[in-house]
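Re: the request from the purification team.
They wanted to know what the chain is likely to look like in 3D before they choose a buffer screen. I agreed to run a prediction and write the result into the notebook, where they can find it.
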Amino acid sequence: MKTRWTMLVTIFLCTLLLTACMYPEERKAENQVPDVEQLASVQRAITEYQADTGVLPIKTRDMDTDIFIKYLVDFEKLVPKYLASPPANSFEKGGLFQYIIWNPEENPTVKLVDLRVPEKIREVKIRFVGTKYPQYKDSITPYIYTINFKNIGYKEDVTVASPYSTNQLPVIVSTQGELYVDYSIDLHQFIKEQGLTPKPGEDIRMLLAEHYPVVPAYSLPYTVDDNNEPIFMYEPAK
């Protein structure tokens, strides 16, 4: 009996060891965060590709696609000549980031989109549109509302982890029924810490996009009021 028990324990431990060894490379913790070296390698690859071809390695998207997800890197054009393989933390390898080219006309720069954001938005939207009446809660502007999460089956308000701070960012909804992440907290914090005074009418999301490797995708435009506080700059298309 003792021998049999020892054998079972040994098999169990071996199974754990094999599972750890076979754990997909792309699911490792270090591949779930922005990586400076991976960004740099993709940057070099697109620079070389553009020098050789005169164009950028991007996937074709509709002209009205959100600026933060409009210019996705097409790794099929880079691999294997300019890059051995897509980065381990990329969507193509099962990672949490889509690689994009920011400012393609003036200064093509590799940036990231955190895919946990659209995933969370899709999850909430399924419940939001599944109710008989739209579950708007409090008005933020005439066109933007908070969501009554309790009425769509959540025990507490849904938030998204900020890519810029330790903040948890709210998920909000427009009167058009589209869901977004509210970056107001991060924008206020960034402007204050950097001592910035943007001009009213300027889309201050660009400050985050230029400063950080991750862009504030799936958001609405913001500017500042007379007190240098972030406010939404959004009105539905007529």
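For the purification team: The chain has five helices and nine strands.
Please add any questions underneath this entry.
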